[in-house]
Structure formats: C-alpha cells, structure tokens
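Quick one, probably user error.
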C-alpha cells in the first residue's frame, strides 16, 4: 500500500446536516442464538422477571444502539406474528423455513417491544410479505399502534399492554429480491404487493414510516433494476428503500477487505443515483431516504447454508468470532455511513447478540464484548450533531476487488451546542500514515482523547479476555500546532478523536 502524508480539512459550516440518531441501530432476528440464550434466557442467573438476560442488557446499554430491527431477516418471511402473542404456554412450536429451526414462540411481539422499551431503543418492525399478505401486515400495525376499541388493539390490551407501542418504522418484507427468501418474487410483483400492503398499513396508522426492500447486495443480478421497478410502484407509499451488505476477507485478500468502506461508499452512491433517477422520471423533488438495515463483517463463505443444517431449536450457529482487523473494517463501515448520513437515515448492524454480533454469550454463563463492539460503541456514543464534510486529500491504493481506493477515510461530527467534534479516521495502508487535520475554522480546538485500534495478524479473538485486546488504546504523539493536529496512524488502523471546540457554526 502507498505511504505518504494525508490532509483532512474540517470546518463547522461545511456539513451535510444533522445525523439521524437512527443511523446507530442494530438487529435482533429469530435466528440461531440471537433471541434464545442471547437476549432472552429465563433460567439465566441474571434474568429479569420477563426472562431477559441482565448481563446482556448491560452490554446492550453500553453499546447504545438507538434502534433495533425485529424479528427478521429471512425469518420474517415465514413468520405468523399471531403465533407469538397471548399465553406463552399455548403458543405453537413452528418449523422455521428460513433457518430450518424450531421456533418455540416464547418471545414474540409483546416481549420484544417491552424489552426494547426497557432498553430505551426504538423498535423497527418487519412484516411478512413472503408467505404473509396485506391483511397480516395491517393487523400487526393495528395490534401495535391503535390505542383501543378494535379487535387487535383490544387483544393487545388483554395480553398485558394497555398502551399502544407506537412503532413508527416498518419494513415491507425482507430481501424479497433473493432467491433464498421464502416467497421470493420478481420486482414488479413485490412492488405491487409492497404498495398495497403499505397503503393498508398507513390507513391503519398514517404516521408510520415504511421501508421498501431494495437489493440484498450490490452484486445481485437484479441490482438497480429491482430498486427502479419497486419504486415505480411504491414511490408514493414508501419513505425509505433498504440496502443490505456483508463484507469479509476473501482468499487472504486483506487489501480489498480493508477497503470495504470504499465498497460501501460506492454501493450507497449507486443506490442514491438509482432512486434519484426514479424521482426525476416522476418529476419529484423528494430525496428518498435509505435504510441500510443490515450491514456488518460476516464470513458467509464459512456458512454451509440452512439446507445443510439439521433442524433443531436453535438452528444454524453463525457465531463469527472477530479479529482486530474485522473491528477496523467495522469502524471503516461506520465512517462510510456517517459520510452518507444525508441520505442514509437509518442503519442496523446485523445482529446484536451471538449471530455475527458484537456481544457473545454462553448459555447459562458469561456475556462479553467482541472486537467489533469497540468501534460500534465509540461511534454510537460520540458521533453527535452535524455530519461534517471531511475533505480528505489522500493517495489512492489499488485493490483486486474494488480497484483504486483512498488510503485514508475520515468522517466527523460536530455538535454546535456542546462544541464537541468527533473525528473518525481509517488508515488502510500497511504502513504508518501521518494525517494532518486542519481545523483553523473552529478557533479553539482541544483534543480530549485520541484512541486507536490497529489490526494484527492474530486472527479471531476467542473469548472475553482475548477480545478485550481490541479495546482502543491511546494514540501516542498527537500534536496540535497552528490550527493543525497531527495524527500518526498505525498501519491498518481506525481511530476516534474527541475534541472540545468553542465553535457553533451555521
Ligand atoms: O442477518 C442474517 C441474514 O442475512 C438475514 O436474515 C437476511 O436478511 C440476510 O441475508
């Protein structure tokens, strides 16, 4: 990779608007051990009266996601939400086709929504448009959001929730472009169904916001065509289009993996171009939002697929153990999301516990942070206010999968009320890179902390103690002089710099 110095210029008035706090979301799916022995384990010593693990809740609070998507994922495309309400002892055990697991329905809509309320996170619900239809979707909105006096709202009240949950954000199905999806269909058919279901849902509650399924990945053969066709139908009904993407190191190609954030940039920019083309055709000035409602590092090539998994209660174990390198890439993906926060208004790292997750648990035992927890928690808790346009002057480096990409990526936020700036920088080079951050326009500038996470060759960090090695450490030798702060970024690293300024900004 290339060497050389890099400049980042920041100014309080050069921004793309306030970052929607919904950008810092996560995802709970009925998949593997995300729910059962993940967030929920009634026999666990730390379980609360509702059966949810207290040790996991503490880590979730520390991670501080603002939003959690539920209940899938592929799972939702065969799920009847009615199976998961009412007396627990009477709920059916169902065969879940997505993951070939047995769904015991001990946790359903009420249990999840109450857990989300206790954790102070906004719920984002998905409806089944695979085997389910318009009525199922509309009735779930009625169950959740109508105060009382109708069949489903009164059922909710009888089930122990007198007040409506007031769920604002709803996904119209999941990955309906994917041949693996139960009920997968073509763009036109999905576009018509999503429009009809969305209309009915908004007739139940006109204040909800709807997310249409976009492509499951940039590389889907129908990418672009899918978004245009769906939105030609659903334009007037939906508020967001979704994106999903998972990244991994392929065949030892570390440079391409380190450039995942650049690949995410391009994917987002392609989706923006595609949805804006629909707007132009419709003579609409509306700039549709994006819900990047599944993103992460996931070593998908190690997963043999649900079809090769024996049916049992917990389904396939997709419990990737992450390395420091993976954590650097996750930090870089967050940089990409922040840099597109004018269009990406919602994002969910997938998934919250055990399944490709920042938190791992042992059934009946401990819960701990994985390496990717650290950049997530740092970004979620410190990125505040406006997304600054970080003007980065950097050399590029060639990668096999993504062509030339910037050596350094950076994103920054500025809270005009407190004056705090949070700067996030990724060095994709295999060498140390000097980064000069120019911030004269801020006036006073005091670096409060600068912490760095550098990759190594050690591979996955198994267990709680090893994973702690990925906790960011102080970045040495940070100097501020003449309106410029110099960072010496170690090879393959991600850093978070918190700064106190006196700047307000327009
Ligand atoms: O997050 C795991 C799975 O990945 C989800 O169920 C699906 O939507 C995606 O393919």
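Nope, works fine. Designed sequence:
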């Amino acid at each position: 990779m290339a060497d050389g110095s890099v400049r980042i210029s920041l100014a309080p008035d050069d921004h793309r608007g306030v970052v929607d706090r919904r950008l810092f979301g996560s995802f709970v799916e009925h998949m593997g051990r995300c729910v059962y022995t993940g967030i929920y384990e009634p026999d666990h010593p730390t379980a609360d009266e509702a059966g949810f693990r207290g040790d996991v809740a503490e880590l979730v609070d520390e991670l501080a996601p603002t939003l959690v998507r539920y209940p899938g994922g592929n799972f939702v495309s065969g799920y009847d939400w009615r199976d998961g309400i009412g007396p627990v002892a009477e709920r059916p055990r169902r065969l879940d086709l997505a993951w070939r697991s047995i769904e015991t329905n001990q946790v359903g809509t009420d249990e999840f929504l109450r857990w989300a309320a206790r954790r102070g996170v906004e719920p984002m619900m998905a409806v089944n448009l695979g085997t389910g239809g318009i009525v199922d979707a509309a009735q779930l909105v009625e169950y959740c959001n109508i105060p009382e006096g109708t069949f489903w709202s009164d059922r909710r009240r009888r089930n122990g929730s007198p007040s409506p949950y007031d769920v604002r954000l709803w996904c119209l199905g999941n990955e309906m472009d994917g041949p693996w999806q139960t009920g997968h269909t073509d763009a036109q058919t999905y576009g018509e169904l999503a429009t009809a279901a969305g209309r009915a849902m908004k007739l139940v509650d006109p204040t909800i916001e709807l997310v249409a399924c976009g492509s499951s990945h940039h590389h889907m053969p129908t990418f672009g065509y899918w978004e245009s066709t769906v939105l030609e139908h659903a334009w007037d009904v939906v508020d967001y289009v979704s994106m999903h993407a998972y990244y991994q190191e392929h065949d030892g190609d570390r440079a391409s993996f380190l450039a995942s954030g650049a690949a995410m940039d391009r994917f987002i920019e392609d989706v923006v171009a595609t949805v804006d083309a629909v707007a132009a055709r419709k003579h609409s000035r509306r700039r549709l939002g994006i819900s990047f409602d599944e993103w992460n590092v996931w070593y998908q090539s190690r997963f043999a697929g649900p079809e090769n998994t024996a049916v049992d209660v917990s389904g396939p174990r997709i419990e990737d153990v992450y390395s420091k390198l993976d954590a650097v890439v996750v930090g870089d993906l967050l940089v990409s999301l922040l840099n597109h926060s004018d269009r990406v208004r919602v994002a969910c790292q997938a998934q919250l516990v055990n399944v490709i997750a920042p938190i791992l648990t042992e059934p009946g035992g401990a819960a701990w942070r994985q390496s990717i927890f650290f950049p997530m928690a740092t970004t979620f808790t410190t990125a505040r206010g406006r997304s600054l346009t970080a003007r980065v002057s950097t050399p590029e480096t060639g990668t096999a999968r993504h062509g030339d990409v910037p050596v350094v990526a950076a994103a920054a936020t500025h809270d005009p009320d407190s004056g705090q700036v949070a700067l996030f920088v990724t060095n994709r080079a295999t060498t140390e890179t000097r980064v000069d951050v120019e911030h004269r326009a801020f006036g006073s500038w005091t670096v409060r902390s600068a912490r760095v996470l550098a990759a190594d060759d050690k591979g996955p960090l198994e267990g709680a103690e090893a994973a702690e090695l990925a906790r960011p450490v102080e970045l040495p030798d940070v100097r501020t002089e003449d309106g410029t702060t110099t960072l010496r970024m170690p090879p393959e690293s991600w850093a978070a710099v918190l700064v106190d300024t006196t700047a307000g900004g327009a």
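The radius of gyration is 22 Å.
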